Amino acid sequence: MEPxxxxxxxxxxxxxxxxxxxxxxxxxxxxxxxxxxxxxxxVFFQSKVLDFAYPLLLFQMALATAVILxxxxxxxxxxxxxxxxxxxxxLLLGPSLLGQIFKNYLDIVFPLKGFILLDVLASFAYMFHFxxxxxxxxPWIIKKINKHTFSxxxxxxxxxxxxxxxxxxxLGSFLTEAEAKxxxxxxxxESVLSFPMIAFFLAELGILNSEFGGVALCSSxxxxxxxxxxxxxxxxxxxxxxxxxxxxxxxxSAILFAVAIFVTRPALMWMIRRNPDGQPLKENYIIVxxxxxxxxxxxxxxxxxxxxxxxxxxxxxxxxxPPVGTTxxxxxxxxxxxxxxxxxxxxTGLVINVFNIKMKNYxxxxxxxxxxxxxxxxxxxxxxxxxxxxxxxxxCLGLVMNFQGVVELGLFKLMKKTKAIDNxxxxxxxxxxxLVTSGVxxxxxxxxxxxxxYVVCKKRTVMHSKLETELRALVCIHDQESVPATINIxxxxxxxxxxxxxxxxxxxxxxxxxxxxxxxHHNLTKCNSSSDVCASDRIVKAFGYFEQNSxxxxxxxxxxxxxxxxxxxxxxxxxxxxxxxxxxxxxxYKSFSADGGVESAKNSIKITNQNxxxxxxxxxxxxxxxxxxxxxxxxxxxxxxxxxxxxxLGGSDDHEALAIGGRMAGHPSVHLTVIRLLExxxxxxxxxxxxxxxxxxRSSMENNYRVTYMEEMVMDGTGTVxxxxxLESQYELIMVGRNHxxxxxxxxxxxxxxxxxxxxxxxxxxxxxxxxxSTTILVVQQHNNVYTENQxxxxxxxxxxxxxxEDEEVDMTIHRIL
Length: 818
Fold this sequence. Notes:
With 818 residues, the protein is α/β, with parallel strands linked by helices. The protein has an 11-stranded mixed β-sheet with strand order 3-4-2-1-5-8-13-12-9-10-11, sandwiched between helices. A two-stranded antiparallel ribbon has the order 6-7. The protein starts with a helix and ends with a helix. It is a multi-pass membrane protein. Residues 501-628 form the Cation/H(+) antiporter central domain. It is found in: Membrane.
């Protein structure tokens, strides 16, 4: 039976792929086979397992997942995105590589008779993948678009479209009509881009919620809208006249969209409202949601639309973020990405054979595609410069706009299906897409360093803050449990009229089910008073009460940051830098129960804290809340004494802890005890600075009867632990520096305790479940990431201006663009 007859349309989602694969393998046998050959009786009955459909499909899925997973682990070392591994895995398993090496490989592992099952499963994967894309899209990002991002997005599409189309027409004048037919379409598809793929790429680079990422996201939204309009017109043009006149498909798509908006969305929203507040989506709701995906896919296909149209619309109309987005990403994303999508890429790789490309066709299509890529780069680069974006950021933006992924691959397949491009052009476009993505990724990583703006020339510490000036602190909250302890510490910092306290409160929420991160600035005067408020509202309300009861000495500026774990620190560092804070307070990643046991550990907090400790533009304090859920002082007036101890072993971090303690000592309810640990034989040269700092502190506290100074002589780390044990249950708060001289006898032997690297040796002992009872621990790291002006010039961060002024000007430019 001939391949054309062997693959009727109703048997497969994309019959052209079956024809292409049959022609490549030379297999013209019938693809129909007995239903009795679905499951194998087993090898013990002399049965060839791979001759049966079900075990063959399982083997293909396992092979595809294993190869792509292995490639992703290898290519991740070079910083390449997941899409490159997926596509290369499909090529590796297809006729382009293993099919060339092993003669009978394709007939055994991917026989033509099993291609239909692959095709159906790939279509299923594609449908659910687009549903996930839809869930991640937040349509309200259009509110952030202004004239600058609109201009960047518009010209990023229009400039390459004009240039590449002109190039295609010029080259087509030297070719026959058949050879030149695909070139204008190639110019079109290489000029478009998609917002979800840009967001995915920025997330993998770790710059999704940076200022640069915000510009790229907003610009890509405009580019996507322009791309959608152009490609829709192109598809209609390349359809037959009868199909264009037939408006039934358009009417059906409008009906499906209207049903989704006015029927499906209200029903799903009613279901979501019945879900417990702050809890994951219930199992029965998840089943209903997945059933809706399948039903919308069936309806789309029955109406003559593409099968992914309905699931995409369903995903878009769902509310982004938790609980729906979180549930979809946790339950559906792993199995779709690592089980089903590998089949989609393998099926794509099976119809691609790079050795079948004629060199003339390759050069023609590659030239048009290259012109389109250069046009996208120049469109974004030139307009960014006109918007006064820094040159380095403009270059990176132009490179980011060249990223392509699954959405573009689907567009290539659609153009191939409508006969707008031939199979050779499709193959060249796919290969070029992978080459460009692999090339731009390391360049962007080399050029763009999101942490360089956080390098400052002046120390931003509590120790270097003037006593008669405003103290600015940034506090990070992950959940409500840490709010009371955080507010108690802020109140203990002793805000006065001469030295008021500005608190920037940042509630960090993990991004799930949304393509673009959010930074929300709350208004304390409009706080929701309903009992059914979200976690952010309750946290904001608590800090609002703190401000109201401070008699004008404290100003609170609350924010909520919704971002991925890997880039969650970006919002934190950005606020700390722009607001010129001297101290950042972050919670420890472990929480403790009332009896002192470890209750839970959150990996997201651990990752964020480590990034903050490495890159913060000011001092950092890690809050280990080991106490019961205590009421803040402004609510519980009976709390009239707050006992604070500072462990002083020496070093810059202990200097900062001492400075914080000194500021607290001015509070009428704080009783401060400073305990200095001394070696048996002190080296005067090593302790000279420590002595100077301590003498200045003691001199400033001479008239404060609430301050006690003690010295303890210890021989080794065991003596240090004994001193710590003696402090148990005597203080509400104990502070200590994070880093100490590892050669010092005071910490010898404590490295075995140092399980939590972010706390340091002594901090880890204090936070251990064996010590301190319900005492709150504050581990302090003084900011020392300071460079001189000459060093900054040498690194290329600024030329003739002060670095902070240059950074502020660059950041204001980006804010103006946003």
